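Hi R.,

Here's the chain you asked about this morning:
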Amino acid sequence: ILQDCTSPHLARLVDWGPQVLQHEGRHFLAYAEGFIEGEPLTNVAPLPMHQALRMVVEVCDGLHAIHAHPSRYVHRDVKPGNIMCGEHFVLVDPGIAFAPDEESITGIGCRPPGTLGYMSPEQCEYFRRSVDLGPRCDIFSLGLTLVFAITGHHAYARYPNLGRSRGRLQQQAINAGRWRPEYAHSMPEEAVRLAARMIGY
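And the predicted structure, written out as tokens:
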């Protein structure tokens, strides 16, 4: 995917090996992304409003390079930890990205692919063959990431009974469709409207 898709806001492929590496009894295909000067969004949020919006625009540019590919790739792991903040915002680690028409080579065990708390509801239904994972999944995850970028906490972190929860309870809230704009504490109105459109409620 990194070989075929290029954007200044998408990690650059430095090298990859068809050889299989072995570590602790397990086999892995290896690839290397280019070094990015900066820190992940998890370390620098909250951001000023203008920087948070620039993050969305630049990450969308990286996602467009993935989504516009003829194979219709989907990143499936958009989250604050996979967005590097430096001179530009750069989306990294497409380790579980896939194309709907291709067989995945990523081992994910018995859980859906993605990060708890940032997966779209349809990603959680991954094992149902009728589910179509498309670009909308990545935009959904980016909407939750926008809330984190502005507030410094997960979109669900201040919910009643969810304030101290981890990814699993947050994911249950996402799947139940319980996010509402009125819960977006300390966010400007225009950002709330944008997040609501991206999250889709």
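The first helix runs from residue 41 to 44.

Let me know if you need anything else.
M.
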